[in-house]
Amino acid sequence: MDHTNFSNFLIDNQAYIIAGFFLFFLLVQMIYYLGIYSRVAFCRNKQIPDITEPVSVIICARNEADNLEKYLPAVLSQQYPEYEVIVVDDASTDETDMVLKRLMAQYPNLRTTAIRADKKFTHGKKLAVTIGIKAAKHDIMAFIDADCEPAGDQWLKGMVSGLQDKKQIVLGYGGYTSQKGLLNKYIRYDTLIIAMQYLSFAISGFPYMGVGRNMVYRKSFFNQTAGFSRHIHLLSGDDDLFVNENANRQNTAVEFSQGSHTRSAPSYTFEKWSWQKKRHLTTSPLYKARDKFLLGLEPFSRLCFYALLIVLLFTPGMQWLVLGAFLLRLLVQFIVIKNTMIRLNENNLLLYSILFDVISLFITFGIFVSNRISARKHPWK
Question: Disulfide check for 247: which of 9, 219, 252, 362 has CB 3.0–4.6 Å away?
Answer without folding.
Answer: 252
